[in-house]
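Why does residue order matter? Because the sequence determines the fold. Keep that principle in mind as you read this record.
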Amino acid sequence: MFGRPKKQEKKSYDREKKEPVIRSSICTGEKVAGFKDKETGRFEDILLLKTEEDLDGFCEIYGIEKKEIKTIY
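Structure:
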């Protein structure tokens, strides 16, 4: 009931059209994980990263290795 965490659903994304990135603000340092469209360059934000565990969870949900993720500013 209240004390148990929910199971994370595995999700997917189009690996040919999108790439996983972290958008980081130069001014505030805020980081957002999401996907960048390879053709248009448009960023789709998925998750605000407050801790390293948030990034681990994002990688686990989408089946991404940390070394695959680029940081853009």
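The radius of gyration is 13 Å.
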